[in-house]
Amino acid sequence: MEPLRGAALLLLLCAAACAQNDCVCEKNKRVTDCVLANGVCQCSSIGSGVTVTCDTLTSKCLLMKAEVKSTKSGRREKPKDAFEDTDGLYDPECENNGVFKAKQCNGTTCWCVNTAGVRRTDKHDTDLKCNKLVRTTWIIIEMKHAERETPINPESLKKFFKETISRRYMLNGRYIANVVYENPYITIDLKQNSSEKSAGEVDIADVAYYFEKDVKGDSIFLNDRLNVSIDNEVVHLEKTVVYYVDEIAPEFSMKSLTPGVIAVIVIVIVAIVAGIVVLVLTRRKKGKYVKAEVKEMNEMHRGLNA
């Protein structure tokens, strides 16, 4: 009986130790093998195996890689260099610290990305050179809320989003440049230069990704969905678009532009050409009219002299 009692005691002690080491990652549900180390929950990010700490946000690159792995298993004028992520989810290559590698590939097709992992060049073959990872310094989040009988109070809306972004996503308030409400559109500007960002601070690209997932109902947080309630009234958001502005303008060629943009460019060019043609024809007609008028006056002059 003594050996059995000893084995049972050992199992109890082991279970207690394991329970103490187990933890839950509240800020990232796409992790596994979580353990408590020095009071901080550390887990293995799904898809990459990189260890992440759960007291801060996980990088967008690791989150995208985890999402791909999980999927496989189961209104105002924008800055002229602002562009949208038209490629969506892909399986990214991440550095050991979780940031995107400047060059991303899918088989034999490669492209360059910014620090938000968004493509900023045309797609090329594997010989493509991406000299450095270009920083995204400005992220514009544009949302549209559902139809309402009355507009939202602009000051209450601004206060809600500033406080939520600072508290929920741990972003220093100085990086929330603006929150603008133009019924029914809500625009949030996040600005962060590399010289401003200090070690340990979250990146605006990661914040924007967490926020976009929250708004679209696919929260990365564990059992903590975002509740948009302003002045004790739930606000339903219908559409979210994110634009990115890099410290260096993107390098897209005409062939990479969407048909709609190309159509607009063609229309503008046609209009300009048509205007030039009309101007030239008008001047020609005016020139002929002047010449004819001079000819008639000369003939009248000769008649008078005769």
> Biggest sheet, strands in spatial order?
4-12-7-9-8
Largest sheet: 5 strands, antiparallel
The backbone outline, from C-alpha atoms, is globular
What would you call the structural class?
A: alpha+beta
> Element order, helices and strands?
HEEEHEEEEHEEHEEEH
How much helix is in the residues?
25-40%
Low-confidence stretches: 13-19
Number of strands: 12
Q: What is Rg? A: 31 Å
Overall pLDDT level? 84
Distance between the termini: 150 Å
Count the DSSP helices.
5
Approximately how much beta-strand content do the residues carry?
A: 15-25%
Provide the descriptors you would attach to this structure in a database record.
single chain; globular; 306 residues; alpha+beta; five-stranded antiparallel sheet; three-stranded antiparallel sheet
